[in-house]
Amino acid sequence: MLHPDSTPHIVVVGAGMVAHRFVESLLSGGDAGWRVTVIGEESRHPYDRVGLTGYFAGADADDLTLDRAVLDDERVRFVRGTAVTAIDRDARAVTTAAGERIGYDRLVLATGSYAARLAVDGFGLEGCFVYRTLDDVEALRGFVEARRAQLGRPLTGTVIGGGLLGLEAAGALQSLEVESTVVQSSDRLMSAQLDQPAGAALSRLIEGRGIRVRTGAITTRLDPDREGRVRGLEFRDGTWERTDVVVFTVGVRPRDELARSAGLAVHERGGVLIDAECRTSDDRILAIGEVANFDGLCVGLVAPGYAMAEVAATRLRGADASFPGYDLSTKLKLSGVDVASFGDAFATTPGALDVVYADPVAGVYKKLVLSDDAKTLLGGILVGDASAYGSLRPLVGGALGGDPAAYLMPEGGVAAPSGDLPDTALVCSCNSVTAGTIRHAVHEEGCADVAAVKSCTKAGAACGSCVTMIKKLVGTELTKSGASLSSALCEHFDLSRRQLFDAVRVSGLRTFSAVIERFGTGRGCDICKPALASILSTLVGGHVLDGENATLQDTNDHVMANLQKDGSYSVVPRIAGGEITPEGLLVIGQVAKDFGLYTKITGGQRIDMFGARLEQLPDIWKRLVDAGFESGHAYGKSLRTVKSCVGSTWCRYGVQDSVGMAVQLELRYRGLRSPHKIKLGVSGCARECAEARGKDVGVIATEAGWNMYVGGNGGFTPRHAVLLAEGLDDEALLRAIDRFLMYYIFTADRLQRTAPWFEDLEGGIDELRAVIFDDSLGICADLDAAMATHVANYEDEWKATLEDPQKLRRFASFVNAPTTPDPSLAYTAERGQPRPASAAEREDARVLIAGTTLEVRR
Fold it and tell me: How far apart are CA 402 and CA 746, in angstroms?
């Protein structure tokens, strides 16, 4: 029921995430006799600014909106679309821009901050944006789409500011197909969170993602075009770069102007001064979030804001609480780039020690900061592999245990901490949720999965970086109580991938619609559809583009080619074992020359041809298939390559025919669909020139036969393969590999590579040997039969496609003009070969345009 006007009144100025959290916390304590008015400038309901970049990945305003029930509560009045213009501290009232005067008993300032812009000429030009609100990102996307349509070409974009937000903004621009550059004034990206080596590692990762990085660059001027839109920017060193859109992410400034005009104490560098109880210099006014200055700092992170909101709400309910200080832990939310920083990352604590692991080739840099006795974890930096962030950050301030270096190495002797955290360990810093709170939710509130824990405790509801740790905790606690954690594939299937595989195998169902009708609900999603496509490929077979199968595939599988950054495709014919005849080389060279393709020898001993347009793919493959080539399956979750050295055929050190074995293995396992891609390697002697121990299956020749290694992976978390068997002859080797691969395909989770799958196997390597060689599970006959079926039924997907006019219809650049080249594709020459042209190069006469030869366009 509504409170009478005599009920004490709290007015909250600001309607962002922190204000929302404050009201939620206040109301969750029961009816404390308060009525609440929330006043927000934006016309929207409070939304998730932490997840703002998700807007460019398909999320809309409704997806980002926070729980509406909080401000829809009958005890709350929500006034939106208007600003508070004045505070009358004597009369205890605020005035809005609409002229309404609202009295208060307590006032909470949650006005947040605003995005700063550089004080340079041209910062107000059309095409210049900040990255702060949902309106900002909507305007950015609208401008990019309209400007691209107007110019008829891709755009270039510049993000000024290389912090967390700047990198996310660059990723957003890239998702809009804008060629992006990040400009940072300091010597490294994320300089507030990363040291110099970590910043260098991050730069390599960002550039590897296709985003250019320019550090030590200070922008001095933005130049307009004739219509007043931004067209370029000048730097202090005198250089000038063309750009079509600029995004400023140079930091935030607290919105303390209202507090200043009301005479509240404000820090000289900005922000309303508060004490540990979030009180300002006026006892009746509190300040929380980014507008609040505590210990001389204003911090633009949501976790401290949430902590302040909890303190303020708790104090107003009459209980004791105090703000403990800032937790500056951060994790970058950018696809393909893993970065985290936590605790005393810069080792400012007296006597602090650094333990560092760096692998520049893999793009990995990890550092732990320890106390002077090397026992207490103080902080850390993780770049390239931040998988340990959720496990390590809760241990800050506590004993690390074991050898610190083991926590950083790809194959440490000590496992990273899992569910055995002390109750006081902070698991979710955004919402201040401890391990003890999560355990209580599992045992006392009946939470049996991550979603339930999130709903009950708010853990994992903000940035999401702690979800992995939450899952481990929930799993550990459920195991203790005799229950188990849900391993559902997605919202449409309660079964795990392994359970779904068995269900399809036993039921004999042959289509996605039949499987989901019997075992699932709804219409499926981009998680379950490709997973089930892979399962059906193993159990049923059939062409990847046959019937319903064609609607289930991932992007690359739809056209059986790898999509490239400029919208063209790569063509990768199979070259088994890296062995190719001179005639084959001539065919590939002539095809590449005739179609103007860029060629490169890959690390897997194949030749990639880049720059093929969609409508060209059938013509290219027709010539390759006629010459005896077949699909190299560079696009699917399947066997990629079998790398080999020349072995005993040529090498004076070789003791077995490694090329012959590699060819045999590649022709045997080609097209084998699996939970993730598979790579094999065969070395002709112990010198290991084929790097077989970095592969899912590695084969190394000895005088006694073949040694077989399993579970090796590259990527962000490299793993060396483990020895499974020694001295195998050819027949025994093939049988062992057959069973290993099929056992993996039968039992692995979705998108789980062999290394983590192998690590999760109960019983480890000994149990795996028992399954494969001793048939301990009684399934070897099934594994052998499944592989025999695959080998017998293999067909080249491209050869079959060329023989089917219906399948060929999908290879058209435009529905109404199937053979018209995509005009957005443009190339320039570099080192004698074509490469995608930058936006600036597209305006140059020497650019090579898709669909032409090396002719000049004027």
Answer: 36
